[in-house]
Amino acid sequence: MDNFVFCNPTKIIFGKGTESQVGAEVSSFSSKILLHFGGGSVVKSGLLDRVRSSLKAGGIQFFELGGVQPNPRVSLVREGIELCRKEGIQFILAVGGGSVIDSAKAIAVGVPYLGDVWDFFEYSASPKSALGVGVVLTIPAAGSEASSSAVITNSELQLKRGLTTELLRPIFAIMNPELTFSLPAYQTACGAADIMAHIMERYFTNTAHVDLTDRMCEAALRTMVSNVPQALKDPYGYDARAEIMWTGTVAHNDLLGTGRVGDWGSHSIEHEISAIWDVAHGAGLSVVFPAWMRHVYRHDVARFAQFASRVWDVEMDFRNPERTALEGIGRMESFFRSIGLPIRLSEMNITEERIGEMAEKCVLKGKGFTGNFVRLDAAAVREILNLAR
Ligand code: NZQ
Ligand code: ZN
To answer: Is the CB of 41 under 6 A from ligand 1?
Structure first.
């Protein structure tokens, strides 16, 4: 196990009706805020009105900026920065999913910075300070409610880039599983794939003696495998929604990655897909992950066999662990398929023309490679994308 520092100060307020506490919670930090939200689900569900009432009751003045799109755009982030500067706002409340939260985080680091916020996503500058961000979460998926990252898209450049700094960690996250009842089946499934991907990015490691975190990852994955079909069958069932929501946070709040080096190659490849085709991040992952696994499993057959046996209940074939490993990958793929996700690029109408370009852009973010479990150069990324066709 590697040395590590674990510090996740995001306060989690979890359970039924908890959104009514938002005004009181915000009032400890600011009396004038930006209320940031997405494309309409929070209006339709009545959540936005409930949040407004709670803020008013808490004596909070708020300025609204809606319209965050999935794969949030830097153009709206720039608008938010202007608004916060003009009104002297020091705190942002994000009501929505990963896209809204990431947009809020980018505004938060952009306000005190004199240059253009995109500099942070090109890594030509790093943020020194940020406004506070609070969250009311409506979809378990990205884990942004307790993560130190924000992922922003620049449509003009067709680039999607992540920024990671402790400054981005939300101060609090209000998580009521009831708010996820309204999620369409496809969004529920996409969120599930992202949560599972966050766990698997950490699981596939070269670090030895990480038994506790291996077991925690496996438990989190099994929780998803049993609860996601339940939530799809009964979208209004609280218990399965609650299990998924809490797993989504634990999957990406850094606990499961303590003492080990994660991979992150599949995420890096997926970001190139959603940057160009604007597909849901989770759907991109359900396509990339099985292909990545088939490309790299020989690097550590024993780890893949362990994954197959402990997560997917594949009977261990000690004489032929490769068979066990491949059966595990197959079962994961079938699971994604069974919950309505694509497992091939062609199902998202993505053709081969831009595979080379995606592979080149993907490795440009690192020093000519991506991933840690197995270092992938552009040729390897191209091969994975071809396997995913
Ligand atoms: O915009 P509205 O109308 O609200 O609709 C949203 C959106 O269309 C809808 N939705 C959300 N909550 C709902 C709902 N519909 C009905 N009922 C509800 N309760 O769902 C759609 C997707 O929302 P979005 O916020 O885009 O989803 P998600 O949470 O999956 O976020 C995806 C973004 O997060 C990034 C992804 O790359 C992507 O841009 N990620 C952020 C990470 C981080 N900050 O740590 C890590 C992740 O790996 C990921 O890269
Ligand atoms: Zn993700």
So the answer is: yes
pLDDT at 365: 80
Q: What is the pLDDT of residues 144-188, one digit of tens each?
A: 999 999 999 999 999 999 999 999 999 999 999 999 999 999 999
How many CB atoms within 10 Å of residue 346? 12
Q: How many helices (H) and strands (E) does the chain have?
A: 15, 8
The ligand with the least distance to the CA atom of 99 is 1
CA trace torsion 44, 252, 64, 88 (10° rounding): 170
Q: Is the alpha carbon torsion for 166, 171, 177, 182 positive or negative?
A: negative
CA–centroid distance, 71 to ligand 1, in Å, is 8
Q: b/e for 66-93, b at 16 or more Cβ within 10 A?
A: bbbbbbbbbebbbebbebbeeeebbbbb
Expressed in angstroms and rounded, the spacing between residue 38 Cα and the centre of ligand 1 is: 9
Spatial CB neighbours of 83, under 8 Å, sequence gap ≥ 6: 34, 63, 65, 89
pLDDT confidence of residue 43: 97
Q: Give CA–CA dist 198/253, Å, rounded.
A: 10
Q: Other CB atoms closer than 10 Å to residue 386's CB: what's the count? A: 14
Residue written as tokens 């989190």? Answer: 220
Residues 156-170: b if buried by 16+ CB within 10 A, e if exposed? eeebbbbbebebbbb
pTM strictly above 0.85: yes
- Asked if 252 and 217 count as a contact pair (C-beta separation under 8 A), the reply is no
User: In this structure, what token pair is assigned to residue 385?
Assistant: 């994308």
Please indicate whether residue 269, judged by its CB atom, sits closer than 6 Å to ligand 1: no
Buried-exposed string 17-51: b where 16+ CB fall within 10 A, e elsewhere: ebbebbbebbbebbeebbbbbbeebbeeeebbebb
Q: Residue 322 phi/psi, 5° resolution?
A: -60, -40
Please report, in angstroms and rounded to a whole number, the separation of the first and last CA atoms in the chain. 37
What is the phi-psi region of residue 349: left when phi exceeds 0, alpha when psi lies from -120 to 50, beta otherwise?
Answer: left
96: left (phi over 0), alpha (psi -120 to 50) or beta: left
What distance in Å separates the CA atoms of residue 226 and residue 146, rounded to the nearest whole number? 24
Look at residue 366 and tell me whether its pLDDT is greater than 80. no
Does any ligand 1 atom lie closer than 6 A to the CB of residue 170? Answer: no
pLDDT of 192 above 90: yes
Inter-axis angle of helices 265-277 and 355-364, to 10 degrees? 130
